[in-house]
Amino acid sequence: MRTDRIAMPSGGVGGVRAAEAGSAEPARARNRTAERAGARTLRDGASAPTRGPIVVLRNISKRFGGNYALKGVDLELEKGEVHCLCGANGCGKSTLAKIISGTYRPDRGAVIVIGGREHPYLTPRESRDCGVQVIYQDLALFPNLSVYENIAFECNLGSLRPYRESRLRALAREALDAMKFDLDPDEPVENLTIARRQQVAICRALAADAKLVIMDEPTASLPRVEVNNLLAAVRYLKLRGITVVFVNHRLDEVLEVSDRVTVMVDGVKIGTFPASGMDKERLTGLIAGRRIDAGKRTKAAAAGETALEVRGLTRAGQFHDVSFALREGEVLGICGLLGSGRTELALSLFGMTRPDSGEMRIRGRAVRFRNQRDAIKAGVGYLSEDRLALGLIQPQSVKDNMVLTVMDRLKTFAGLISPAKRDRTVAEWVERLDIKAANVDDAVSVLSGGNQQKVALAKWILTDPKILILDSPTAGVDVGAKDGVHRLIRRLAERKIAVAVISDEVSEVYRNCDRILHFRRGTIAGEYSPDRVSERELAGMIENG
Amino acid sequence: MARAGRRRRDRVAVYLALVMLAIAAFFSLATTTFFTLRNFLNLVESYSVTGIFTMGLLVVLVAGGIDISFLATASVAQYLAVVVSRSLGLDDSFILGVLPALAAGAFIGLVNGALIHYLAVVSIIVTISTQSVMFGGLMYSSGGRSIYNLPGWMYQFSGTLFSVTVGGQRHPIGAAPLVMAVAAVLTFALLAHTTTGRQLYAMGGNPEAARRLGIRLGALHLFAYGYLGLMAAIGGITQALRVEEVVPNALVGREFDVLAAAILGGASFAGGRGGVAGAILGVFLIGLLKNGLNLFGVSSYFSDVIIGPVIVIALCATHLGKRKETDVGFA
User: Fold this and answer.
1) Which CATH architecture has domain B34-320?
2) Is 0.80 surpassed by the pTM of this model?
3) Is the CB of B214 less than 8 angstroms away from the CB of A338?
4) Does domain A306-543 match CATH 3.40.50.150?
């Protein structure tokens, strides 16, 4: 019985849709029909996924400020296919997905064909009515409500109508059975793991009668085992004739279920390729090939004395036996996949966590940090990877954020902060780093990603660090502004600061670092010099874990 | 499986009921006057008005907001009921007499909701300021004087409505417990059995997700604060019926009793939590304690000293089990 349903893409919500194909009834009404029709619909109404595009995008461009996030992109999504939108951070893949979901409006000249009609852009409402469902990274679930209510919440829209629990339960049950998820419908969502919450979100899309499901970085927060469960779920969606779009940073995880792969670099579509001929090497080649032409390596300055030396540093479960040296004026790349322990290492170097064993020496003197204040005193600065939540105090002004770390130096003889000194310092660094802010009294949150990052960097430069650890310094920074951050990194090195750049973007470390440590499973797997390996070789080694 | 879910949902209520039983058992053994029908009815009567307010506040808490102004609203409604009835000569009509007061209550709530939603000001700030405006205005226009001479329609429903005789003893019952029962049933139906109620929980749980689903947050805000305003007016009138006087400054200042009851009953400042059963139990847990301590001979001032820690302990115990496994800070 169960296997029948898997083999024939007919059961549950899909079956109902097939029975009422072409009807313009809103999803809610259809759901009601689903309940009335009951078990019958689970067996009747088979519909093989017929071919033909479900969405056609033509000439999609999107500019933010002066920078193109997307440039003349064309894309067709076939009915029932699994399509992977792939590329590095800031390549425009998320922007493209947001244009399909109606969150962003493309620039003039764009054409979106969906539901048999041409649109210059979509509103979120139009997009939803056409059966587009987005599963955001944050999943947008209601943590306080039960699994079944989350899945079928669409039945609760409309005001002051009776809440029909049995209908919601039936719809949720149907979606859960269709996906073969083993979830307790009564469990509050907040008690579930991330992977299980994702299952709830998938069921919700199914219950809302999705024709196209866009998943934004669905594997980013999942352990490996759970990724396989997710892929199984995607296969079920595909069997039902539902198109699935992965917006994914990395290809390897989703390649096995994908039909086609669209590769994006810097807002431009490189091409759409059948997944069968695609592998990690070819993808990194495609991205890197494009990149090497586009970008040059920054020049190294002469490195000085050893600033930081780490020997056998170990913290249980995070990293083990890490040894390396970092010299003044050097830019060291620490490259590794998310979860390889690179950020955890940085937190220990910055005194936020304590290593279990091993030693750290700064300019030859052994140090042991109790907290980050010790680290700052010793001349270590750490730019957090999570600029939004941890790096900057978003609602506060550019000015206040910048001087946060150096309040002591701005004091007058009476021990109070001198506004004049503060304003001079801020003005100086806004100019030196070319921070584009209308007003330094504006909240940091109104700045672009690149400018926010410069404010965060200024904050650390002001502390006059000897060693600066930059964790994913260009994550979420748009393409045009990345170069600015990269040049800034090099200028820091010229000022005899020892810089460590942590990144999962091979091209970033390749082009901007003098030496690259490959971090894997909590330890250093290799050390490379960009003079001796090609970007493609390096990418192959790192991306393959 | 369905049964398991219901158990989980009402765990707070069950837990509170057990605590109340324990407290009741203690006072029953420790005093001779506690475990009597008279004392029980007296307790219900005294805390019914608090219960009515709690029902309104619960809806706002579920929606993810907070309101400080509702007792000022109640006082204004009481006062208006008397003054409007007097000046328009509506001495006998209950409906016409009570209507302006209820309308005023709901209107004040709607104003709160509109300010909170459209100006995007934090609800506690908005309601502190409306509380101040209303209470100040009331004290100014009434001159702080109490009204002992109520319109005729109020006397129709004040004092004892009927009485039950048990074992030869007459026990009078007033309007307050009945009004509270109606308010509780109404609020329960709203929160647990209407789409609007479920949307309130959704908005309280994750407003951004609610917005993305197309739920109209503005309408929900207006509804929640309007509902509280209405409940506040009903509570205010009921209080006037109970004590047969309107004292402009009798209610304001007791907001935190109501808040404590709702929070004890499982509601949360974070929104999206709580239910009618828990909130009612919360009201009567506090009532039980105050009543018992009073019979025990503890000064009413000192009983507040005891109740504070009890609330904290009860809250900690209830929430200990489900303290969140911390979300991953550094992914």
Assistant:
1) Orthogonal Bundle (1.10)
2) no
3) no
4) no
